[in-house]
Amino acid sequence: MSAILRAHAWSIGLAILFLALLGLAKVIQPSFGITGLESLARAALPFAFATAAMAVVVIVGGIDLSVASMMAVASVTAAVLMQTMPAVPAIVITLAAGALMGAINGGLIVVTRVPDIVATLAMLFVWEGVALLILNAPGGTAADWLENTIRGSFVIPGLPKALVLMTVCVAVVWVPLKRSKLGLSIYATGSHENAAFRSGVAVGKTRIAAYAVCGLFAAMGGLSLTMLTGIGEPVPGPYLMASVAAVVLGGVVLGGGIGGLLGPIIAVFILRIIRTILTLAAVDPNVTTIVEGTIMVAVVMLGALVMMRGRETV
Amino acid sequence: MTDQTDARALLDASGVAKSFGAVRALTDASLSVNAGEVVALMGANGAGKSTFVKILTGALRPDRGRVLIRGQEARVGSPAEARASGLVPVYQEPSLIPDLTVAENLRLTDTPVDPFRAYVDDLGIANLRLGALIHSLPLATLRIFDLARALASDPDVLLLDEMTAALPTDLVERVLKVVRARADAGSGVIYISHRFTEISALCDRAVVLRDGRTVGDLAIEEGVEDRVVELMLGARIDLGRRAGLAHAEARTGTPRLKVRNLAAAPKLTDVSFDLHPGEVLGVVALEGQGQDELFDVLSGFRRATGGTLEVDGTPESFGHPADAIARGLTFVPGDRAHALLAERSVRENIALPFAARIRNWGPLKLRHERDRVAHAIEKLQIDTRAQGEVRRLSGGNQQKVTIGRWLATGVETLLLFDPTRGIDVRTKRQIYPLVRELAANRSAVLFYTSELEEVPLACDRAVVIFNGRTVAEIDASEADEQTLMRAAYGLAEEGAA
What we know:
The structure holds 2 protein chains of 2 kinds.
Chain A: H1 2-7, H2 9-28, H3 34-59, H4 67-84, H5 87-112, H6 116-134, H7 144-148, H8 161-179, H9 181-191, H10 193-198, H11 203-229, H12 239-249, H13 262-280, H14 285-313
Chain B: E1 9-20, E2 23-34, E3 38-43, H1 49-56, E4 64-69, E5 72-73, H2 79-84, E6 87-90, H3 102-108, H4 113-122, H5 139-152, E7 157-161, H6 169-184, E8 188-192, H7 196-202, E9 205-210, E10 213-219, H8 224-233, E11 257-264, E12 268-275, E13 280-284, H9 291-298, E14 306-311, E15 314-315, H10 321-326, E16 329-332, H11 346-357, H12 366-380, H13 395-409, E17 413-417, H14 425-440, E18 444-449, H15 455-458, E19 461-466, E20 469-475, H16 481-488
Parallel strand pairs in B: 3-8, 3-9, 6-7, 7-8, 13-18, 13-19, 16-17, 17-18
Antiparallel strand pairs in B: 1-2, 1-4, 4-5, 9-10, 11-12, 11-14, 14-15, 19-20
Helix pairs in contact in B: 4-5, 8-16, 11-12, 11-13, 12-13, 13-14
């Protein structure tokens, strides 16, 4: 039990911080309640998927700057397809396209040996162009029932449907993956590539697989955008930097090998609720971003200090 | 012997060749291992041992030659394939993943847990915790785990690369016992080590590599050490005349460096020597005997864990490279890439040390700089347009720049770490006089080299380090390769120490 606690110490710490911030929101604005939670979860949805996508490639020791662009491609693909076909096949095609885009990113890095940051920067522009080719202005449509799957609460009030959907989608991919040999290989490659290679891990294939999973999560993010707005949006949103921020705050080490998806997703909610609180407290929106940045540095620094203490006492 | 294909051979590699660009690392390497045999693979530094190991284990693909395992052409294109065909290596550096637990590392290589646990027990590590993170464990434990994991995967051929380096004596004994038992049970073992005592205790045969080819395959018997040393040396290219050594009055007065019983984790345990102004002192050691730690301590990259260091008679303990530099100790790393600004011109690189010495802020005195640089380049015989970027120079010329700039600047104590690695013979011959000239200018030079024949050419004396301790101090006039090699392999402990 204590081992589990220790392994998830960072996520637990973040969850406590999130609950404290929720309490603070309630204090500042007593009318903050179920509706507030629901809209928070809805707003967090695309950020959470973008963060999950980024976390997987950071764990394998890389980075993908094209996450937001892939989301845009997925968003317009889904919106265009749903004009002519039922929602389910459209979703399947979109998810497959996402995994394919990710695999292309990964393959490019592995085969050409161009550094990941350069390769995915280039692909950021490529996917952005692809999205605009598919749909050159916001448009298309989304099935009505899809929009309803993220509106309101699930079974009990206060449990937003958006949160349930996100948890299910991430868990369906991540839980089996993490327990598989591939998941272990992803962590091994990110932790020490050479040792992983010598242990018989197919490092290149592992990396491509991780980027494909990243693309899959990005496609889910793009779908969630279409579900939220009811249309396809070809211009990438502010998800790149936000996802890197949440990944770092969520305890994933840039450089690879350490962390999971739970921490980063809780971090997304923390970053969103800080924004809500500052809005409720009528803080100047320009000051808001300064506060967000400061909190991020402070939390990561504090966490590193706590970790170092912990390591010394072992 | 070497090209014979034995029906019993578990592993049979023959005619293996590999080049890296113009450098021919291996030309004709062969090795065979039979069931129940432990074969030592030996060779001096640069003989091609590590390239051969990489090819056998699938980390590199050979240009020519073949590797048969149980008579089948082995597909060893990657470590995974080598493992699948029955060859499991234990490398010098543990290949366990630092951020995973012991259990996860076992799962990664599909190693069964129970035999692993049994081997760990046999090897003398108590209280195995499968949930422990690798990066929280000490190095010796990791090496044992790496070995136990290899054994537990039930290999046909086990390859151990410097398995016992950095292990305490009691663990070494257990390792030898377990490895011998494994061979007796029918596996083949390739054992790479610099330690003759272990090799004669454990091995059946020794295969000797020199200059990229297999030059001998000997049964281990009484007196085989001398034969192996002879084979490793072979006939050498003449690198030039012995430097005219004038050091009659050199060793009087306060030494520039006085090192006593110096120790630094993990490998340096007890090193002592004096280095006087005007002297070049060679350091001779096989790879990984503690010389890296010695140079790290002297240049302030690492703190000593024991012993004393005096500079000009004052005790010192450097906490930062800047402290060492302030006391006049200048380190020239073996890797040129760490010493030069490759994108800048030769002129700027030579001028950098004096720029760093300027104590007042403001513009550099360019004319002054130009004069000194011109002087230095002439001395160095760098065949170049001095305005060119350093990275466009050949490796040898780059190395001349890293040493020669100290000649231009003036330096009290120079710590040279293997300055001639990978450099052609002609340039080497130009480097020794540079080193001698530094000494003639009253600099003190500590000169580690992995090439024994350089010692009498550049040094006045040499200290030999084996297993973290100084085992001999040899005067240049007596420092022929045979003597140095024997000392470096720990065979001459009763000698001049």
